[in-house]
Amino acid sequence: MTMQPASTEIASRTAAIIQELKGLEGPLLPILHGIQEEFGYVPQDALPVIAEALNISRAEVHGVVTFYHDYRSQPAGRHVLKLCQAEACQSMGSDAIAAKLKSLLGIGFHETTRDGSVTLEPVYCLGLCACSPSAMLDGEVIGRLDDEKLNEIVAEVRS
Amino acid sequence: MIPRIYIPGDSGALALGAEKVAKAIRAELAERGIEAKIVRNGSRGAYFLEPMVEVATANGRVAYGPVKPSDVKSLFDCGFLTGGHHKRWLGAPDKIPFLARQTRLTFARCGVTDPLSLDHYKAHGGLKGLQNAVAITPADIVKQVTESGLRGRGGAGFPTGIKWKTVLDTSADRKYIVCNADEGDSGTFADRMIMEGDPFVLIEGMAIAGIATGATKGFIYIRSEYPHAVAVMQKAVEIARKAGVLGVNVLGSPNSFDMEVRVGAGAYVCGEETALLDSLEGKRGQVRAKPPLPAHKGLFGKPTVINNVISLASVPVIMDKGAAFYKDFGTGRSRGTIPIQIAGNVKYPGLYEAAFGMTLGEIVDEIGGGTATGRPVKAVQVGGPLGAYFPRALFDTPFDYEAFAAKDGLIGHAGIVVFDDSADMLKQARFAMEFCAIESCGKCTPCRIGSTRGVEVLDRLAQNVEPEKQIALVTDLCNTMKFGSLCALGGFTPYPVMSALNHFPDDFRPTPVAEAAE
Prior knowledge:
The structure holds 2 protein chains of 2 kinds.
Chain A: H1 7-21, H2 28-39, H3 46-54, H4 58-67, E1 79-84, H5 87-90, H6 94-105, E2 111-112, E3 118-123, E4 135-137, E5 140-142, H7 147-158
Parallel strand pairs in A: 1-3
Antiparallel strand pairs in A: 1-4, 2-3, 4-5
Helix pairs in contact in A: 1-2, 1-3, 3-4
Chain B: E1 4-6, H1 11-15, H2 18-32, E2 37-39, E3 53-57, E4 60-64, H3 72-77, E5 89-91, H4 97-100, H5 118-123, H6 128-134, H7 138-148, H8 160-169, E6 176-181, H9 190-197, H10 199-213, E7 217-222, H11 227-242, E8 258-263, H12 273-280, E9 304-308, H13 309-321, H14 323-327, E10 330-331, E11 334-335, E12 337-344, E13 350-355, H15 360-367, E14 377-382, E15 389-391, H16 401-406, E16 415-420, H17 425-439, H18 445-462, H19 467-484, H20 488-492, H21 494-503
Helix pairs in contact in B: 6-10, 6-13, 7-8, 7-10, 9-10, 9-11, 10-13, 17-18, 17-21, 18-19, 19-21
């Protein structure tokens, strides 16, 4: 698993991100995106630093972080695989694809394999509805998923 | 002349292997020592032909598709750089029937031009609308948009010009233009395509909106599931700023307008305009009660125009060719064109821009070609996860706002998802409730609690526990959600649920589990 940085280090790296973005109008989401990009998740230790800098309560920061699906409280696996589960993909058999992938990886949605290689997440639409079923692996889009492509994905994340 | 090769950089084309094709073409060019310019254009929207590679020849563009990396060597052998014949040869792209039959106003350049070339944009009619706009008064711009009959393409269908007029007439020290690019509805990808394929048209539309209403700052709120669109828009905004399309003197006029790209964080409800505004302000994306309207008190409490991507991207052509030109297309109170997105289990999926008024049956059967699996069409969901399921019996419904409302449906963002006869409509109804439960912002009770209770009731129905009672209960629950929710998430979830129940009653009366065989 990825080592989590010490809280003092988190505070100083967080402060640098805040410094860069706090001049924006409505800076909280850009700051949280910046933090997640920096650490791979939003560490608890970053929240009081943000609250203080933006002059809002820790509860407000906590409320925002937990509202949005994107922000993680823990680091993800080395790869992140998002599988579309919305209607257009359902019409092309995404349920069966999900079941197959879960059994190939041995994990369910919102879980990470024990070796930390991959985190599997459902996503509700990637805008690839004309090439369903679709997925996104580490930001790369994949359409018309079939058994062959699933096996390729599994081989890639395991390598 | 150096040959010019177009390989789409659109996400949909990339998902089908366009990057591998580009790599193979580059390698082949190097091996053969041929110098060529590769343009990463957007997609024309015929996804059954993607990756569709085009070459510019003396006789115009010639398309090949769908191209696989393994085709590349033989394409060169067949002389594809001069339009040579090959098994993937499609001829002139604008003669391909799926594309030739369309009326492309908003998407005129998408897939044709280099998305990040402002010169290309201008050469294909870009910036003419903005040039016309800076030469007239804000009131005249608003008048022209109002007269065009343009209505909100995000789904609500509110007249765009009236929204703009409200902001123009409200005085404030600061006003905003917000573009809603939180295209979360399954079956829709028009916003993504235009942002990736013709980003300047959106920038131009927003600049016109700014000048028309006195707003000097714009935000484009793009969902995080669209990283490619975010990257293209960010680059395009920078290019536009450097070229003086944005900034203190828009196109050399005294008008000031600039914009920023902001990225969402995976909350579907932020596609609702007031939740989006809260999200932009750095809050939880919770829905606001209206009034006050965003046009009076929107972003940071200032008068704000909030429009969908396609609404704003349709403005430049209206300002270029006039309100009458645009209004001439369409039917009834639905004027102009609508980019219909044909998706899901369909033979010819893609984006089809046409005047309002085609029937649902024409779209699904003639243009979409029926299902991809070859089985009969059972249902089509129109308008995303909050849209109704239509059975074949309603395929004569013309594609227009009022006609769909009259059949207890909505056209929404004009996405159509086709299902074959293997679809279980009880399962689809349950998913609608489940999705609402996952994505509810939690502010109002009918949506927050109703959706969870809805899942439970439909689960009991699936287990055949007192089915008549469950049907009565879910009907009553839908009524409460429809009339008691603050926004369209809770308010429209009943559309897919009740349409599935009403049009496919057999799926809601599961046969009892057979007794064990003797």
